[in-house]
Prior knowledge:
Helix content is 42%, strand content 16%. It contains 13 helices and 10 strands. It has a domain at 1-35 and 76-151 and 203-294: 3-Layer(aba) Sandwich (Rossmann fold), CATH 3.40.50.1240. By secondary structure, it is of the alpha/beta class. Strands 1-10-9-2-8-6-7 form a 7-stranded mixed sheet. Helix 4 (77-93) crosses helix 5 and helix 6 packs across helix 8 (172-178). The radius of gyration is 19 Å and the shape is globular.
Amino acid sequence: MNDFEKGPVIDSTEPSLEKEEFKPSVIIDLIRHGQTKYPEKVKATLEELGYDVEKLFPTTEFSEDKTAELDGGIITPEGRTELLEVASKLADTIDRENEVVIILFSPTSRTEESAEIILEGLESEGIGLGKDKNEIIHAKREYRRLAELLDTHWVNVFKFTASKGEEGIKDPYGTYLKATKEDLEQWALKEDSAIKIESLGEVMKRLTGVTKAFYKLSRFNKKELDGKTLRVIAITHDVSMALILKMLEKQLGEEKNEEIQNKAIDFTSIKTAEVVELGMNKEGTVRLLDNFND
Length: 294
């Protein structure tokens, strides 16, 4: 079986190669969506379940504004500012001569809007996707919908944890982390047969599938890449990013600070518009690169 057939491998071992010897053919910038405003009905639902919403979501806004009616939320002015700052950092990081850049986003309104803002920021820095064949695969702007990394509406997670009583209310994240696929399926069946809720184990399996898709993207487009590095800017969610760090946990050794290590076990510590940068070499091995926000 060749390396392509094997697909990417999340390297969870202590790195044996010096940093300069690891040469990624794909760079993946995982970016959490910007600060979001949700409809007031979401806040009301959480309060009815017994949660202290202000304590649980100190930076999240809730509004009667009709533009926030989508449960997926809309980006606040503060969120827009933080995303434009990320775009400016990306523009300084991107090797314009030797990288091909594409943007992907999971199918929620907040991630799609975040992707639009990132693109706007890159264009303002002179990185316009789709204007030159060397800037984008197939010489056109590519917005590829990234398979949702967490195929579970986050409100359903809080409904599940509330069903576990006081412990679930006090520590919803810890309760969800411990939940098995069977726990969630039984709850969903009892609550509403239409509810779709995944365990973290299932999400981790799909994360591996997404990295495999990035790998295939670079291998299938070798001619268009013409020896350049593919940079994938993927707008996603806190849980997805925390699980990637969990997979790479053994790499978070002494060279990484305690705060970054904690993100692997506590996805609440991943801020809006935070970036985690990964590298994937031609063999498909994935490693954590320098944390973008350090």
